[in-house]
Design brief:
The complex is a heterodimer of chains A (about 500) and B (about 375). Chain A is α+β, with helices and mostly antiparallel strands and about 500 residues long. Chain A has helices at about 5-20, 35-45, 55-70, 95-115, 125-145, 145-155, 175-185, 195-205, 205-225, 235-240, 245-265, 270-290, 295-305, 315-330, 335-340, 345-350, 355-365, 370-375, 380-385, 405-420, 450-465; strands at about 30-35, 75-80, 85-90, 390-395, 400-405, 425-435, 440-445, 470-475, 480-485, 490-495. Mean pLDDT of chain A is about 85; it is low at about 505-510. Classes of the chains: A alpha+beta (about 500), B alpha/beta (about 375).
Chain lengths: ~500, ~375
């Protein structure tokens, strides 16, 4: 398997055995040696050269090739979540780099197999995508390349409208539980507690009864809504309810499946890279690096961990967090006693010799994702050690300046950026708006405005699928706003918000 | 390997890019943004809209989290001279604005298609020829790497059949030295047309920055088209106010003089150039003149018309005059030219009131296919 040279194959065996001895657990990894052009090509397809034809891969390829030719960037390694895992090594890399990459890859593969957020991803994705590819080709033969391509474009512009948590949640969406819900909410009057007349006012306070009645009425109204509950899986809703041809439905289903496959990688970017760096550095520095290779290794390694403004380097942040966790659990810096201790001097010297670090990092890699990882493990000390700050753009100079180093703010900003992969949270609110079959999406405003021109254009994509007027409710500059596209023109009008704090506009509660 | 999939996707992408440029050509032309990004053979075109639209957060959400030294209020570290980090591969889908390189050749083609420009029938090309070589010939001698397998096989088959050594039951063909055939370079004399563009521009006080920018944009597209039509294109620049001088490209577009305008001075200089170096028999000559339409005196205008009639026109393919609107220009010169050359195909005059006027002007200049 693979096409490694005997030297590289020996290296792979050594690295694999070492990784196993550390307790890493992975599917078989098949390494392929490729040149830069092949690697750019594979990377353009998101790691799957068997994917359906689309111009976007071509665009990606041009960008990658150009930036490689100009020496701006170079891909070291590429690994895909599959059983077996496929990993690509660049032929022109030095041996030391190949070693590093192999060790790194085993880290990723362990993560793919063991992290809970990947548990629902298909491990035969290479085959699945190849099937998708040939189906799309067949549709292209039958309906014409541009027709199919236009539809793929439409889906691509909506494919962030999925519910990344849905594969892990059993929702009561089947007909029976829905019926039950409807029956439950069919009570039209608030049930009063039986009481003597003169006590009634106290036992059933009119305010409460009124509020309860309103709640019931709302429930009642909701029961007749479509969808009954706002759904974050907009793609699924469209798949089930938009007036699509069967081939379009099939395509949408395929692309949705792909979106769900890739979602966990977006949800665990920091962790996944951090974990891989943690393991390549552990294995390289303790075992694999020869004395003569140290400089080369350090060069590559530090290039990977370099921080740049404007973005968090997930490699750096991830590995530092894992190391911090390991140290804290080695020294017993957790639990009630440590948390209660307010003396910074004592905290700094705290060491109970607990020695649970390695075990803890393995547990962490199993159950966390980036949001929970950052939320739980970034401590004030960590933020300070890592010199974390919030930056903002200076309006006058256009330069980015450090705005704040306050720990809670840094963390809040970080979490904001990670929530829903930094995408706005959008739900289907109403599929039969004004009883005219119009579609209303709801943007759950939590601190960031939508980019207006993009939103207007995306509505056109949505219209292409729904074929009736489409709207999205959102907040712009603190005011409720309804953006619409009716097939001819885009409009934007101010609307009332129910709750100025969050900008929720007439949403049903979930 | 057969045609790689990525090449198909890439071709498809290029196809879409060309479509976009064509669709937005007017915008690209009037914004003039391409000119600044011109390389030798490529133009870098920003195409942010090629990224599919999505519901995403607006650009004002510009703050983020970083790491490094510095006090609050200081510039965040590592912005200037920042080395692009080499990262291990990720799922990073770049959200940055896409810039696409398009060759000038393609750009000319797009311009031609969009404006429906006819190809130019070059004249006066009898003397200039180039040798174009293609491996279309066959020869008996050559390097083995150019061996023509099919022909060699045929020769061997013919020889074996005619000498009776061919056995249909055991159809083994063994070529000998005499059977070998090779691909050979066939040279063909190809006429090569040469052309020269002589740009003349009024740089007197009334031609402002915006006027010159418009001329610059127009000249860029004219160059691009003519370069597409002629293998060998020379460009000369003449500026004039009361007197004319030859200058280089940069000076041409940036020089600012004050003082009067004597158009004939430029025409005379152009004529000198043409007589000295660009005989009609070997060159396609394109004088272009841009001004805001003011001239020193009616007498000079008459002199210009005389020069055109007697010398310039017979020596050029076509004479083009573009009148850029300025706050001071009277616009008289165009009227005079139009009056004098009514019915003369070789003189094309256009009004360029603003940037949107550039494209129509180009169309009238180049639309005749001369």
């Amino acid at each position: 398997m693979g096409n490694l040279t005997p030297e590289l194959a020996a290296m792979r065996d050594q690295t694999r055995d070492l990784a196993k001895s550390y307790g890493l657990d992975f599917y078989e990894v098949i390494f392929e040696l490729v040149d830069y052009d092949e690697l750019n090509m594979i990377a353009s397809y998101g790691g799957f050269p068997v994917r359906y034809p689309h111009w976007r891969w071509g665009m990606e390829y041009e960008q990658l090739s150009k930036s490689y030719q100009y020496g701006l960037s170079k891909i070291y390694e590429l690994v895909i979540n599959n059983d077996p895992c496929y990993a690509y090594l660049m032929r022109s890399n030095a041996l030391t780099e190949q070693k590093l990459v192999m060790a790194h890859v085993y880290g990723h593969c362990d993560f793919f197999k063991n992290n809970a957020w990947f548990s629902h991803t298909s491990r035969k994705m290479m085959d699945v995508l190849a099937n998708h590819g040939s189906r799309v080709r067949r549709y292209m033969d039958r309906y014409g390349q541009s027709t199919v391509e236009d539809f793929i474009d439409v889906v691509h512009s909506l494919d962030n409208l999925i519910d990344p948590y849905s594969p892990y949640i059993e929702r009561g969406t089947d007909a029976r539980s829905e019926a039950k819900e409807r029956a439950d909410s069919s009570n039209k009057e608030v049930q009063k507690i039986a009481a003597k007349d003169y006590m009634d006012r106290y036992i059933n306070p009119p305010d409460f009864i009124k509020a309860e009645q309103e709640r019931l009425d709302k429930r009642q109204e909701q029961a007749h809504r479509f969808p009954a509950r706002p759904s974050r899986d907009v793609l699924k809703f469209l798949m089930e309810h938009a007036p699509l041809e069967t081939w379009q439905q099939d395509l949408l289903a395929m692309l949705r499946e792909e979106a769900y496959y890739f979602a966990p990688q977006g949800m665990t970017k920091i962790m996944n890279e951090g974990w891989a760096v943690y393991w390549h550095s552990t294995m390289m520095t303790r075992h694999l690096c020869q004395a003569g290779e140290i400089v080369q290794y350090c060069d590559t390694h530090s290039g990977t961990l370099a921080t740049r403004p404007g973005q968090i380097n997930p490699y750096k942040m991830g590995v530092e967090l894992f190391r911090d966790i390991e140290e804290r659990w080695n020294k017993g810096r957790f639990g009630a006693d440590y948390m209660r201790c307010e003396d910074p001097e004592m905290r700094r010297k705290w060491d109970t010799g607990a020695g649970e670090g390695r075990k803890k990092v393995f547990d962490v890699r199993r159950i966390y994702n980036d949001v929970t990882f950052v939320d739980e493990f970034i401590t004030p000390e960590f933020a300070e050690d890592q010199k974390m700050f919030i930056y903002g753009q200076d309006r006058q100079t256009g330069q980015y300046v450090i705005v704040d180093r306050d720990y809670t703010k840094v963390k809040k900003q970080l979490l904001k950026a990670l929530t829903n992969f930094g995408n706005p949270i959008i739900k289907v609110a109403d599929g039969n708006h004004e009883n005219r079959g119009e579609l209303v999406l709801q943007h759950e405003w939590v601190g960031g405005d939508l980019q207006l021109d993009q939103a207007q254009m995306t509505l056109k994509s949505l219209f292409a699928m729904w074929k009736r007027p489409v709207h999205i409710r959102t907040m712009i500059d603190g005011k409720g706003r309804l953006l619409s596209f009716d097939g001819k023109e885009s409009t934007s009008q101010e609307i009332e918000t129910d709750d100025p704090a969050t900008g929720r506009v007439g949403t049903a509660d979930e | 390997m057969a045609v790689r999939r990525i090449d198909q996707d890439h071709t498809r992408f290029r196809h879409i890019v060309k479509g976009r440029i064509k669709r937005d050509l007017k915008k690209f032309v009037s914004s003039g943004e391409l000119i600044g990004k011109q390389g030798k053979r490529y133009v870098s075109i920003p195409l942010p809209q090629i990224n599919l639209p999505r519901f995403r957060f607006g650009k004002n959400e510009n703050d983020g989290v970083g790491q490094g030294e510095g006090e609050e209020g200081e510039v965040a570290p590592g912005q200037e001279g920042d080395e692009s980090g080499q990262g291990l591969a990720g799922e990073n889908t770049g959200e940055h604005a896409i810039e696409v390189d398009v060759s000038l050749e393609d750009l000319a083609q797009i311009l031609g298609e969009e404006l429906e420009l006819p190809n130019i029938e070059p004249r006066g090309n009898k003397n200039l020829t180039t040798q174009a070589g293609r491996y279309t010939g066959i020869s008996k001698a050559g390097p083995m790497s150019l061996r023509h397998f099919k022909r060699t096989f045929k020769e061997a088959l013919k020889r074996q059949i005619s000498s009776g050594t061919y056995d249909p039951d055991n159809p083994m063909i063994v070529p000998i030295r005499e059977d070998l055939r090779f691909r050979a370079l066939q040279t063909r004399k190809q006429p090569e047309a040469s052309a020269v563009v002589i740009y003349m521009m009024d740089v007197s006080g009334s031609m402002g920055r915006e006027q010159k920018e418009m001329v610059r944009i127009e000249a860029f597209w004219i160059d691009t088209w003519l370069r597409h039509q002629y293998k060998n294109l020379e460009v000369r620049y003449i500026v004039h106010d009361a007197a004319a001088n030859e200058v280089d490209q940069h000076t041409f577009f940036h020089l600012r003089e004050s003082g009067g305008t004597k158009i004939s001075s430029a025409y005379e200089l152009a004529l000198q150039m043409m007589r000295a170096k660009y005989p009609m028999s070997e060159w396609n000559v394109y004088p272009f003149h841009f001004s805001d339409g003011d001239n020193w005196s009616t007498r000079d205008t008459e002199h210009c018309i005389g020069l055109l009639k007697d010398s310039l026109l017979p020596m050029s393919n076509q004479f083009c005059y573009g009148q850029v609107k300025s706050a001071y220009g009277s616009g008289q010169f165009k009227k005079d030219l139009d009056g004098a050359f009514r019915g003369e195909d070789k003189v094309v005059t256009t009004d360029i009131p603003d940037r949107d006027g550039i494209l129509p002007s180009i169309k009238s200049f180049l639309g005749k296919g001369r």
